[in-house]
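Appendix B. Worked example

We walk through a single record from start to finish. Start with the input: the chain for DUS-like FMN-binding domain-containing protein, Kwoniella bestiolae CBS 10118, length 345.
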Amino acid sequence: MLPEKLPTETQMINSNDVEAGPSADRRTEAELVEEQMALPVEFPKTYEQELNYREKLVLAPMVRTGTLPTRLLSLYYGAGLVWSPEVVDKAIIGSERTVDLIFQIGSSDPELAVKAAQIVQQDVSGIDLNCGCPKPFSTRDMRPAERALWERLADIVALGKRRGIPVICNGDGDGWANWEKIRTETNADSVMLARAAERNPSVFLPTGPVCNMTEVVPKLLAIAKHTNNPWGNTKFLLTQFKASPPPISQMSKQERKQAAEIISKSKTIEQVAEGLEIPLDNAQQVFDDVVRKIAERSEKDTNIWEERHEADAKGLVVDEPVNVDGTGEVDGFEVGVGQAQSSKD
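Next comes the structure step. The output line below is what the pipeline stores for this chain.
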């Protein structure tokens, strides 16, 4: 016969605690974590060449922004690694290889995630699983009002180092001063860039970024032309670029406005190239130069932080003005954490 009243879940738990008595495992969460971290690695590495995630500035996975032109430009200017935009599992199943990179899969289904990973596992350098980025939010500015709490990552980094797991910090890294501060506060192995790279992919340069309009845009158009990047995406990338402030650029306010209007009104890559007086007949050569430089950097696998310090010691560094803990204005440009934009235009 069943009892007249079943015990509640809380009552059952309390009862078990009582029965366990003094021998119950009453260790703290920190102690349990310590025990787990002391265990041997369950899955030893079996691949021939380990991907190096340490001592790098890397490009974050960004929907719409992280397409091939942005990835190539980021690698060209010094990014150690680049992530693809998030691609849902069903979209990759049945597709064919196009380019090697760290591939981000968006999935909430373990079986589909595995199937998608198996499709690309021989053709990418790494696989990143995104389990919590709702698609509508991926293209919005979700930046919180306050800066990222870098210091909270320190404990995670410490645990990772004990297990030989590199940890990359992503959040409000907006210039070399910020990135050094992130590394100091967290001891992270590398730093990931999103908005800073979106507005100017040359931020990865150890000597500081170059002028978007005169240096980066011509390369972007050449890459987009050579790779047949869809015009809609190419125009989106151009509109995300922010005019470089002094001393990086010597363009006047009127010249900046004129360039922005040309990009806004253009309906083809040829129109924007003609309006900005940028030749496209050398697209093949520009593309080959970009690929060659990427290959040269890949062979060296250099330490970006050492490169930066060497460039600084030689007096080669020219940075955009940056406010490490907030924002400020320099010649009408908002600089610091977040996207820079002209407040006077």
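Two observations about the output. Residues 283-300 form the longest helix (18 residues). The two ends are 81 Å apart (CA to CA).
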